[in-house]
Design brief:
The protein is mostly beta strands. It has 2 helices and 18 strands.
């Protein structure tokens, strides 16, 4: 994803790797599908300045993008400084480009095929499908597998990767782009997923008020359908 800031914002152009995508059936304005893209995180910084570049207090910057909308996610030292920053793409930027390069790949249908592809250092991409029985909504997550664990004799794999985005199907947020949690996922079978969601969490008290930080603190275990694809060389 490349965003082009407006001239009065300095005209900076930032190219950022995509960490994951999620296509949700039923969340588009038309009632159809909409794909959302999570960009890789970076840190808050001053641009092209003399002297120190990292801002302090520092925060993590990432975001969820569609072709028309953006939700910028800033994770601060304490959660009280965090709030949704949702805009139309053209309201926030001069323009945004989402460029996807297909990978020549084939689906790996067995534990042994996955183990072999891992040990051959082939790129691996996963597709996870979630279906919500309460709402009837479904979602398809796609993401590179950055960490893969395997054993041999017998052959087993275990995915442990992220960040990615998980739809919160029962969310009451008015904007669909706000109905996601940033998460990591683990699984070693094709029919179950365990997500750890990034949420505000109370870690103490100051002046009689709770102090919260945002970290991976909530577990979601759900039925899922996984497909793993290995690079064809």
């Amino acid at each position: 994803m490349t965003f082009f800031t407006k001239p009065h914002q300095g005209g900076n152009i930032a190219r950022i790797q995509l960490d994951a995508s999620c296509t949700v059936e039923g969340w588009a304005a038309s009632g159809g599908s909409q794909t959302y893209y999570l960009i890789a995180p970076c840190r808050s910084e001053r641009m092209y300045a003399d002297g120190p570049l990292f801002q302090m207090p520092n925060y993590e910057f990432c975001g969820i993008f569609t072709e028309t909308q953006v939700s910028l996610i800033r994770t601060h030292w304490t959660s009280d400084r965090e709030s949704a920053d949702i805009n139309g793409v053209t309201d926030r930027f001069e323009r945004v480009a989402i460029d996807l390069e297909p990978m020549n790949a084939r689906r790996l249908d067995s534990q042994t095929e996955i183990v072999e592809a891992t040990l051959q250092n082939r790129r691996l991409v996963a597709r996870t499908t979630l279906v919500d029985d309460e709402t009837g909504l479904s979602a398809q997550l796609e993401y590179p597998i950055k960490t893969m664990n395997v054993t041999m004799n017998p052959d087993h794999f275990q995915v442990d990767t992220g960040p990615l985005i998980v739809p919160i199907f029962d969310s009451t947020e008015s904007e669909p782009i706000a109905r996601f949690a940033v998460a990591h996922v683990v699984y070693w079978t094709f029919d179950r997923a365990e997500f750890v969601l990034r949420k505000p969490h109370v870690v103490g008290e100051r002046d009689g008020q709770p102090v919260e930080v945002t970290d991976y603190t909530e577990i979601l275990i759900t039925a899922a359908s996984h497909e793993i694809f290995g690079e064809v060389r």
